[in-house]
Structures are given as structure tokens and as C-alpha cells.
Design a protein that fits this description.
The chain has 190 residues and is of the alpha/beta class. The chain has five helices and eight strands. The protein folds into two domains: 108 residues, Rossmann fold (3-Layer(aba) Sandwich); 62 residues, Winged helix-like DNA-binding domain superfamily/Winged helix DNA-binding domain (Arc Repressor Mutant, subunit A).
């Protein structure tokens, strides 16, 4: 039984809180590790953006994230946490992808064939990122974008949900919407 859970931000926040609830554990803290931006847009380097803000020395620590993919996030987290002199360090994720060289101590599901997993707490951000990747430097209507979600990512998205995302991206200035088509603001009209 851990003394404290360290949730890796941002994907591990919800699972970390749920595990605390299940274990009747009150001590939950977090650290922010950056590896991905939106929708599988991997950064060149995995880095700790916000370190653990509490003393964990001498404690049994459970590090929680949503998924192991490349393994870089959990590898960095474990190495960092061991430097803080805890009594023990274990890791847990919801899904473990077997392509990951890092194998967590605990996982709820093993994923054998690699795929992008969309969690309810990250759905909007992931879909927005995939929509931007689909559009790239083209001007596309909503039906074409929906079609490409299916062919490129094997994702079925409802028009109303996509419309809300595209409207938000347009309001933020990341997309333009002209004549029923959406395009990246840097490429529209080229």
C-alpha cells in the first residue's frame, strides 16, 4: 500500500484521483511531464515542467499515468522520484502498450496492437489536434474532415461534436472558416 500517489500531469490526474479513492488514500500530489502536445504530436525531448512540490523522502510512492506508450514519461518520472529518496517506487497505468520498453508494475489493460487511446478527460483536446492534422494546409468541409477521421485514425466522430471543436478553433484564430470550408490560418487562401 503506497503512502502517497504522484499523478503525472496531465493524463494521470484522473486515474491518480480514482486510485486514491479506491485505496482510501488522502495523499495525492502531482508532477507535470511534457512529452506530447495535442493529438500524438510528440515533443523532441521528454522533460519535467513542474516537479513534485512536497517531501516524499522515506515514503512508498505510487506514480500514476494514463498509458505507457514510448515509456519515456514513466522512465523519467521514476528516475526523478528515486532521487528524492523515497522508501519505494511503483508505477501504475490504465493501459500498457506492449511496444513500450517501460513496463509498469500495475496496469488494467494490455494493448498489443498500437493505437492512439482517447480518454474522456482528453477527448476534446485530442480531437482538436487530430482535426488540425487532417486539415494541414488544405481547405476542407466538415464531411471531408469526418471522413478522414475514419480513414486516417479509425475514429468515428459525430458532426455536432466536430462542429463545436472547429468553431472553437476558429474563435481561437487557429482555423478560418470561409465558404463552408475550414483551413489553417497560416495556409488559407494560398
Amino acid at each position: 500500500m503506497p503512502d502517497i500517489i504522484v499523478a503525472i500531469g496531465r493524463g494521470g490526474f484522473v486515474p491518480g484521483r480514482l486510485i486514491c479513492d479506491f485505496l482510501l488514500l488522502n495523499d495525492l500530489t502531482s508532477m507535470k511531464i511534457e512529452h506530447y502536445k495535442r493529438a500524438a504530436d510528440m515533443q523532441p525531448e521528454t522533460k519535467i515542467r513542474y516537479p513534485i512540490p512536497v517531501d516524499i523522502s522515506g515514503k512508498k510512492v505510487l506514480i500514476v499515468d494514463d498509458v505507457t506508450d514510448t515509456g519515456d514519461t514513466l522512465s523519467l518520472a521514476v528516475n526523478y522520484v528515486w532521487n528524492l529518496k523515497p522508501a519505494d517506487v511503483r508505477t501504475a497505468v490504465l493501459q500498457h502498450k506492449t511496444c513500450s520498453p517501460f513496463v509498469p508494475d500495475y496496469y488494467a489493460q494490455k494493448i498489443i496492437k498500437w493505437r492512439w487511446i482517447i480518454y474522456p478527460w482528453a477527448r476534446y483536446e485530442d480531437l482538436a489536434g487530430f482535426a488540425e492534422k487532417i486539415i494541414q494546409d488544405r481547405a476542407l468541409d466538415i464531411s471531408r474532415i469526418i471522413s478522414e477521421f475514419k480513414t486516417k485514425y479509425e475514429l468515428v466522430i459525430k458532426e455536432a461534436e466536430l462542429q463545436e471543436i472547429l468553431n472553437d478553433l476558429t474563435e481561437r484564430g487557429e482555423l478560418k472558416h470561409i465558404d463552408g470550408k475550414y483551413a489553417n490560418t497560416s495556409s488559407f487562401g494560398n
